Amino acid sequence: MSDPFAQRAQAVQRTLLEMEENAAENDLFALGYMIPQIGLVQEMADYDPAEVVAEDFDATYWQWLESTFAQDGMSDADRAQIAALWQRATDQTPE
Description:
Radius of gyration: 13 Å
Order of helices and strands: HHHH
Shape: globular
Number of helices: 4
Number of strands: 0
Helix content: over 70%
Largest sheet: none
Strand content: under 5%
């Protein structure tokens, strides 16, 4: 059975890893923060693969990040940088 949530997670992770390879030094912290969160989201997500679409991963991931920002005391500047990189990653990742 196909799992669009997991497939999207893997695709976005590949994009983020590619972005990290070519990243400016000032983007490395944000990308290093974002990449390991993908595996955590996959571990913690409770879903039925038959009832999700790929975009559900994007929404779940972003909600997860927003909750970790608060827990980690993330600055507004770091949040904004992560949001911009996330938008770029989702735009660059094929559906």
